[in-house]
Structure formats: structure tokens, C-alpha cells
Amino acid sequence: MTRYVLTLQCPDRPGIVNRVTGALLEVDGNIAESAQFGDPDTETFTLRTVFDSPATEDVVTGMLTEVAEALSARLTIRPESRRRRVLIMVSRYDHCLLDLLFRHRNGELAVEIPLIISNHTDCAPLADRYGIPFEHVPVTPESKEEAERTLLARIDEHDIDFVVLARYMQVLSNDVCAAYPGRIINIHHSFLPGFKGSRPYHQAHARGVKLIGATAHYVTPDLDEGPIIEQDVARVGHAHTAEDMVSIGRDVERMVLSRAVRHQSEDRVILVGSKTVVFA
């Protein structure tokens, strides 16, 4: 028996679940987990199902592709054992990268990490410690286009499923963002929207906020406005300094990004227009 993960997205209409489960019955599929949602705003139906089947991947894909075509649906099917391949990008702050590598080594993140790319060399020793190849790709105003060509080449060379910006402090071009919709995840050091810029915790401190947070979202050409995958907050008080907030905020960033990466790696996130459905 092989365990498969199926996702489906299509215009909402009666009989969708019946069509899918009927196809699964044809391949002797036994459903282990299933979740669905009909979005009333976009009239879009989304589904994630985990099932076991003795049939080969080609047979399962063929049967469900027929159903998808009849429903005008977007379909993904993956043997659960085939892990998503992730390229991580980082600059100098290493807390999010360290957390992802630690969880990956301990088996908490079922992904493969064939490469880490950075515009600095600060995190090279960390990558080496975890046995992950590291490539330094400097970025200057003059070399930005060349750096992005390198990124696109590495995505193709390593058959990357999605990219994680683990505090990568460079803005990707509109062309790169548009080329990989729903495949580039960024961790924003703030609870979006608000307090944008390079010193969000200092802005928050100046305003006397009582909550700080972090947001994991898909990267789009609109800076820091992509569909949100995961968020969390931490409560702070008047006695906390800006440096305290930085420390607390880093903890929240780590947790939020790791949850977002786990959701993405398990095919739990479905992009619907400007927002996401997350079957967590």
C-alpha cells in the first residue's frame, strides 16, 4: 500500500466529494484523513485528502486526472514518502535558519534541503554544521539581475518545490515573484499589516504596543502584502525594552516560519486568490 496526498481546487458545485471518493474507490483507496472548504467569497471549493492505495502512482494519477478535468479542477497528487524539496535563502540573521535546520534534522520537517543560498557568508558555518550545501551569491545594485539568474538556475537544477526566505534581506524582483506564485515563503518580522521597514520592533516600542508578532506569507510583487499562511503574537508590557522585543520577536518568527514550512511541505496550504486555505 502507498499513502498519497491529494489536493484539489475548483469552482464550487454539488457532487465534488462524490466524484473524488468514487475515483478513490476505483483504485481501492482507503481515506485516512480528509478536509474540505467551500469559500463563499470566491465560490471556490478546496479539498485535501490523504489515502492509501495498492495502485501505482500512474494509475492513481490517471484516474483522478479524469475527475479533475471534468470538474475544471487544479489537482496535485504526491506519494507521502516523496518529500518536498526546499531551497532556503538567508542573509545574516540566523535564528530562523537554525530553527529550520534543527527541526529538519530531528524529523519534525519532512523536507529535503539540497541548498542554502545567501548574499553573505555569515551562515556558511551553520550550513556546514548541518551538512547542507551553501552557496554565496552576493547582491549589489549592479549584480542583482545576475544573482536572480543564479537563483532561477538553482531552482531548476535542484528540482525545487518551494523557496523559503529565512530572513533574506533582499527584495526579489517582480519577475521572480510572478514566476513562482505560492512557492516562495517569507517571514515578516511584524504582525502584518503595520510597522513596515527595517526596525519594526523599535517602531512598536515607540508606539507602546502590547502585542508584537510575525507573519509568514507568500511573496508577491506587492512587497509584504502576499497571501498570509501563518501568524502569531506575543504580549509585551511597558517594562520591555526594544531589545527585549527583538528577542521575543525572534522566538515568534521562528515558530511562525516553521509552522508555515511544515504546512507547505505537507500540502496543507491552498492559494485562493489573495488569501490561503490552510488545512492545519
Q: Which short descriptors sum up this protein?
A:
34% helix, 280 residues, Rossmann fold, alpha/beta, 4-stranded antiparallel sheet
Description:
The chain is an alpha/beta fold and 280 residues long. It has two domains: 2-79, Alpha-Beta Plaits (2-Layer Sandwich), CATH 3.30.70; 84-278, 3-Layer(aba) Sandwich (Rossmann fold). It has helices spanning 16-26, 57-71, 95-105, 124-129, 144-157, 174-179, 200-206, 242-265, and strands spanning 2-11, 30-39, 44-53, 74-79, 84-90, 111-118, 134-136, 162-165, 184-188, 211-218, 228-235, 269-272, 275-278. Strands 7-6-5-8-9-10-11 form a seven-stranded mixed β-sheet, sandwiched between helices. A four-stranded antiparallel β-sheet has the order 2-3-1-4, with helices on one face. It has a two-stranded antiparallel sheet with strand order 12-13. β12 and β13 form a beta hairpin. α1 (16-26) runs antiparallel to α2 and α7 (200-206) packs across α8.
What string gives the helices and strands in order? Answer: EHEEHEEHEHEHEHEHEEHEE
Strand order of the largest sheet: 7-6-5-8-9-10-11
Per CATH, the class of the largest domain reads Alpha Beta
Radius of gyration: 20 Å
Class from helix and strand fractions: alpha/beta
Mean pLDDT: 93
Give the name of the CATH architecture of the largest domain.
Answer: 3-Layer(aba) Sandwich
Give the percentage of residues in beta strands.
Answer: 25-35%
What is the strand tally?
13
CATH homologous superfamily designation of the largest domain = Formyl transferase, N-terminal domain
Total of domains: 2
- Report on the biggest sheet: 7 strands, mixed
- Calculate the terminal CA-CA distance, rounded to whole Å: 25 Å
**Count the helices. How many?**
8
The quaternary state of the protein chains shown equals: single chain
Poorly predicted spans? none
The CATH topology of the largest domain is Rossmann fold
How does the overall form come out from the CA principal axes? globular
Share of residues in helices: 25-40%
